[in-house]
Amino acid sequence: MRDVHFSVLLDATAVPQDRRGVGRYVDNLVPALARTGTGVRVVCQPSEARHYSELAGADAVAAPAGWVGRRPTRLAWEQLGLAKLARRSGPDVLHCPHYTFPLAASFGRVPLVVTLHDATFFSDPGVHTRVKGPFFRTATKLALRRADQCLVPSAATAQELIRLAGARSERLTVAHLGVDPVVFAPPSSAEIALARQAAGLSPEEGYVAFLGTMEPRKNLPALVRGWVRACARLDRPPALVLAGGSGWDGDLDAAVAAVPPELRLLRPGYLPIERLAGLLGGATLVAYPSLGEGFGLPVLEAMACGAAVLTTDRLALPEIGGDAVAYTEPSAKAIADALTELLSDEPRRRALQRAGLARAALFTWDACAQHHLSAYERAAARVKS
Q: Is residue 23 a contact partner of residue 56, using CB atoms and an 8 Å limit?
């Protein structure tokens, strides 16, 4: 490992308390950077200051509570307060890990690095809301023009940004995300039992699990309809568990309402992180039939928990799953056929479980941190030149 002594000011004020994808990214990146010798100062919500100060001794700075509690005022504070803090504290790099950044920072010559998590705002705008889509397309274009380096979680995302948003390849750094082997590992029987209880499952009930936000690009209506069709062909149909934060998929409710009463579909909502290994590793199969991902962290986490995974070959998902997962087209019929085949083939599922564990071990947060350091170095060098 290189002996580096960068100082990074990292803006975590956009991280949600329920620790979805961006929250897990920041929570794991901070200690991985600290292990390299990098000095990390985290700007965060006041309620998160203790949390970040305990992450490998990171220096936490609480942003003003009255400004960062809601998105509109947080964005205003980002433009004014964060830019001022960056100029005053003089870090080697300012890292904004979720699309937006203070425009003034790009003129003040504080080296600026921005993380862009996916390109679906350009490639598939219809799966985003009318507000979210244009907002993040604009933020992405600004970052590609103004940032000294942009971090992306996959080569597929980099290629899409070059193709659709005019990104310059030399200003992009690919940094695959990692998986925490302590949190996401094959679960014990006790962990599975607790996860079953949290999801509303009976002790011996077989189930197909989905984990993620309920949004259109996750393709959940097709999963529900495909699962219903597959269950009609099975002697012992499994339950379907849709776990994760609520989103804005209006078609999902209609698909759920059409589920026959003899089948069990459970929607436990957001589950705490300590229940996820039990949910994923205890499933007969994990299904993630997304229409496209910038990375696909739930697929990686499911593999690390010893789950057999079914996903699609869209965007970054094959880059993450490789030959360790099964693939399907995103239609309800194709999902039904794939579910029928996998649920009836235990040796195939066992082989996927073994392959998934081996592949998941290749994705580490330490490797991710090293790619971040490379981006920081390139950003700093560009400002000095």
A: no
Per residue in 24-40, is it b (16+ CB within 10 Å) or e — as a string? bbbbbbbbbbbebebbb
For residue 203, give the amino acid letter. P
The residue among 224, 330, 331 whose CA lies nearest residue 267 is 224
The whole-angstrom distance between residue 198's C-alpha and the CA centroid of its chain comes to 22
What residues contact 267, with CB distance under 8 A and at least 6 apart?
A: 241, 242, 243, 256
Upper half-sphere CA count for residue 258 (Cβ side, 13 Å): 14
Q: In Å, how far from its chain's centre is CA 50?
A: 23
The angle that helices 365-384 and 21-34 make with each other, rounded to 10 degrees, is: 80
Tokens of 334: 């194709």
Residues with Cβ < 8 Å from 127, sequence gap 6 or more?
Answer: 120, 215, 216, 217, 291, 292
- Mean residue pLDDT of the chain comes to 92
Sign of CA dihedral 159, 165, 166, 168: negative
* Token couple for 310: 């079914």
Strands 239-243 and 265-269: parallel
CA distances, 371 to each of 32, 259, 358 (Å)? 11, 45, 22
Tell me the pLDDT tens digit for each residue of 157-205. Answer: 999 999 999 999 999 999 999 999 999 999 999 999 999 999 999 998 9
Other beta carbons within 10 Å of 125: 14
Domains and CATH numbers, the chain: 7-178+364-384 (3.40.50.2000), 189-360 (3.40.50.2000)
- The rounded radius of gyration (Å) of the Cα atoms in the chain is 21
Identify the helix (H) or strand (E) that includes residue 178.
none
Model's pTM, two decimal places? Answer: 0.93
Residues 131, 87: Cα–Cα separation, whole Å: 31
Q: Which amino acid is at 10?
A: L
- Phi, psi (deg, nearest 5) at residue 305: -90, 5
Name which of 195, 383, 211 is nearest 289 in CA terms: 211
User: Mean pLDDT for each 10-residue chunk of the chain (385 residues)?
Assistant: 71 81 91 92 91 83 85 90 90 95 76 95 83 90 96 98 96 97 96 97 96 93 98 94 82 94 95 96 98 95 98 97 98 98 97 98 98 96 80
Element (H, E) at 133: helix 132-146
Lookup: tokens for 324: 């360790």
